[in-house]
Design goal:
With 489 residues, the chain is of the alpha+beta class. Helix content is 36%, strand content 19%.
Length: 489
């Protein structure tokens, strides 16, 4: 097995390596060396195990009980122009035939969860809701209501299916396909790249009377799941585990913000989404500073957000979380739908009242080290650290930040949107997701209202932007001198 350097010299990363790391953090590139052993088709005839990260999702939902569907994810695909609903249904049917992950459910055999891969369906149901009889000004709101209703329906993990779709016709030339998927079979690359690209490609071919131009896949998600379970028993996993044991020894106390909250209330898994944005001008200034300091945009955003949290909590040492697309490292997995994300802890260090430049350097080292060792699943890591299975995520971090994959370019007449449908649940107490677009950074803050108020979240976002504005102008100023007091509780 390929060994991964657990102590990268992040301070000397070349511009080319930083660009590669930025793409990787978006989930857009393979990080594996060219001579690494490729994943092969699974030859054993027994049911496939769940991938370790997938098993963590399955186990966490089973333990959560009767709570909002916090693992439901939705995407909206817009068709601007005429649409043949029958062809659209056939296109979805073909995608589900191609990808075993989207026709999989889960069972338990001999106390171990396994994948049950169902035969391809003859037809995938796509109910159509025709809204053209409503007043034009009411149609979009009704479409969103229909989508939200679908997003809040729980999935049965044992019987499946774990994907559902509904088509809303707004006008003759305005259609919206709402697809809701269980987190265990989807990640950012799936919903932003693989699925919409395949859907449009197959639809355009079938609509023209041609067969799908996409060749069958050489691997399936079950092959990756089997490989990753085997990988955990090898030397590379042991080396990464050694890194984490050293990095996470003498864990700091949980982040003390907001004041007076009760950590166990996060188990309600309720969630609300608050959209926000960081303007184009500030985004470009931050990117320029990051390039000058040899860090990625994600590192700059993480440094700024963690600086606000340090000020709010008064803590010099705490853990922030991120989502690493660790399963996407290998080129042979780039075109699969499925769940390849691993929650990764980032231990932030504010000792000595650093300047922004120094914080960016520390953040680069923290993120680079974490990404070099992000193949060890969170559940496995927590077990090896001796933490109990109850609320293991919150034992490390309450706040998670990530930079979503870039949207794929679709054929004219097709677009996609995110953060417009809420499931009513939240995986973490506070999840900050950003995506770079033509107008700057678009984001969503998904938070548990039993732990945070809308005012808490709004103040954090406001203080974050204010701090970034000052950082890009005065990067040598000590962090304690940056003006975030107006947003403090």
């Amino acid at each position: 097995m390929t060994k991964i350097d657990s102590t990268p010299n992040a301070a000397t990363l070349s511009p080319a390596k930083l660009r590669l790391l930025e793409k990787y953090l978006h989930g857009n590139v393979s990080k594996t060396t060219a001579d690494a052993a490729r994943i092969a088709r699974r030859t054993v005839k027994t049911p496939a195990p769940l991938a370790p990260v997938q098993e963590e999702v399955w186990r966490r939902e089973c333990e959560a009980g009767n709570v909002p569907p916090f693992y439901n994810e939705s995407i909206t695909v817009h068709r601007h122009g005429r649409l043949n609903a029958d062809v659209l249904g056939r296109s979805l049917t073909e995608i589900i035939r191609r990808h075993e992950a989207w026709r999989t459910s889960y069972d338990v055999i001999e106390s171990r969860p396994v994948q049950v891969i169902h035969p391809p369906p003859t037809a995938f149901p796509v109910p159509v809701v025709d809204l053209r009889n409503l007043r034009a000004e009411d149609r979009a709101a009704e479409a969103l209501r229909v989508a939200t209703e679908q997003a809040r329906m729980p999935f049965d993990l044992k019987t499946g299916p774990l994907v559902r779709a509904k088509l809303a016709t707004i006008a003759d030339d305005d259609h919206r396909l709402f697809v809701t998927m269980h987190q265990s079979v989807v990640d950012g690359v799936t919903v932003n790249n693989v699925f919409p690209s395949e859907l449009v490609t197959i639809y355009e071919a079938l609509a023209a009377g041609k067969p799908s131009p996409l060749s069958d896949l050489s691997l399936q998600y079950s092959d990756y799941a089997y490989w990753h379970q085997e990988w955990l028993q090898g030397d590379a996993a042991a080396l990464q585990l050694t890194y984490w044991k050293d990095r996470l020894q003498a864990l700091p106390r949980p982040l003390a913000w907001p004041a007076g909250r009760q950590p166990d209330r996060a188990r309600t898994y309720r969630g609300i989404i608050r959209p926000f944005s960081i303007p184009y001008g500030l985004t470009q200034q931050l990117k320029a500073l990051c390039r000058d300091q040899g860090v990625t945009l994600f590192m700059g955003l993480t440094a700024g957000c963690s600086a606000v949290l340090a000020r709010y909590s008064g803590q010099e040492d705490f853990v922030l979380g991120t989502l690493a697309p660790s399963g996407r490292k290998r080129a042979e997995l780039q075109n699969l739908v499925g769940y390849f994300l691993n929650p990764v802890p980032l231990r932030m260090d504010f000792s000595g009242n650093p300047s922004a430049r120094e914080l960016l350097r520390r953040t680069r080292e923290t993120v680079s080290g974490a990404i070099a060792n992000d193949d060890v699943p969170m559940e496995h890591l927590m077990s090896k650290l001796g933490l109990t299975s109850d609320s293991r995520h919150q034992a490390l971090f309450d706040v998670v930040i990530s930079l979503a994959p870039e949207l794929t370019s679709l054929t004219s007449g097709w677009t996609q949107t995110f953060m417009d449908v809420e499931s009513g649940g939240s995986r973490w107490p506070l999840y900050l997701e950003l995506r770079e677009g033509p107008e700057g950074l678009m984001g969503r803050a998904q938070y548990n209202p039993d732990m945070f108020t809308d005012v808490d979240v709004a103040q954090l976002i406001g203080a974050w932007q204010t701090l970034l504005e000052v950082i890009v102008r005065e990067p040598d100023t000590r962090l304690s001198d940056y003006p975030v007091e107006a947003h403090e509780r």
